[in-house]
Every structure is written in C-alpha cells, then in structure tokens.
Design goal:
With 168 residues, the chain is mainly β. The protein has 1 helix and 8 strands; from the N terminus they run E-H-E-E-E-E-E-E-E. It has a 5-stranded mixed β-sheet, with no helix packed on it. The termini are far apart.
C-alpha cells in the first residue's frame, strides 16, 4: 500500500501519529504508529474545505477580489483551523475539517525538533462506496515528544505558523 504524508520537511526527531480512523469526531486511536495504513492526501478537487485561521476556503494571504484565481489555487492552505497548547504542555489540540467519518479517516502527525513542532494531516478514503459531500469538524489531541515550551507549531504542508510561543 502506498503511504503519502501531506508534507515532510526534513525535520529530525521521533514522529508521533494520531490515527483518527473510524473513532468518530471526538476520539482517536494511536495504534498505527508506523505511519502506514493506506494514507493518501486529499485530492486537489476534494470538496473537503481547507481553511486557515482568518482565511476562508479558496482564499490565500494577500489575495483580493480581482487577483489572479490561478495564483490562489496554486498556494496551499492549512487545513488546521485552530491549534492550541494541550493540557500539561505535552500535546497540542488541533481542529480541522474533513469528510464524514464514515468515509474518511485522518492521521495527524507531530514531528518534533528543538525549535518547532511540524503538524501533518493525512486523509484516508474508506472503501469505494458512495459518500455524502459534507464537511465534518474534527478535534484531536496530538502527543509531543517533550513539552511544547517555547517552540512554535507550523503546518508541515504549507509552512504556516499555527501557534507562536507565549514569549514571541
């Protein structure tokens, strides 16, 4: 099976995965720590909205009405709509939108380094039957190797800074 993670940006450190499988919107299992499991990124034509804090689907930073639509389509957007430090500073709490949990499963991965935590989101299509074209909000807690501390959190796919440390 081919495994595709949305983005890997060459960061050293141990990887943490949260498999959101078919556990529904409120919980997940971390049994698949191999990073495998048939993960594939959402297609460019996916109806699942990708948004970034302060951005609407289909918009890009600095875009305005009348700007080149092709340029906006080429710039990736973060699918994480909210990221905050978790309880005890050993996790991050993330919110994102995806397809309904009966048709899609998600893995959120944290790649830790000394300076930052890079979050990746991978989507898996379950089965080959019909799916309703509807977005669902997911909330997940992603464990970290060590305390978040003064590290910033970035989207590994886009490079967007999702969470700045308190001191800067």
């Amino acid at each position: 099976m081919l495994v595709v993670v949305l983005a890997m940006i060459g960061l050293a450190g141990r990887d943490n995965d949260v498999d959101t499988g078919s556990a529904g919107a409120g919980g997940g299992s971390s049994d698949d720590r191999s990073g495998q499991g048939g993960m594939a990124p959402p297609s460019a034509g996916s109806s699942v909205p990708g948004t970034s804090p302060g951005r609407s689907p289909g918009s890009s930073p600095g875009s305005s009405p009348g700007s080149d639509a092709n340029a906006a389509a080429e710039e990736p957007m973060s699918r994480f709509t909210d990221v905050r430090a978790g309880e005890g500073d050993r996790s991050v709490e993330v919110t994102f939108y995806g397809g309904v949990d009966t048709c899609y499963g998600y893995v959120v991965r944290a790649d830790d380094t000394v300076q930052q935590v890079a979050l990746s989101l991978a989507e898996e299509r379950k089965g080959d039957g019909p799916c309703i074209d509807l977005a669902q909000e997911y909330e997940r807690s992603v464990p970290l190797d060590g305390p978040l501390g003064d590290r910033r959190v970035v989207d590994a796919a886009t490079g967007d800074v999702l969470l700045e440390p308190d001191g800067g």
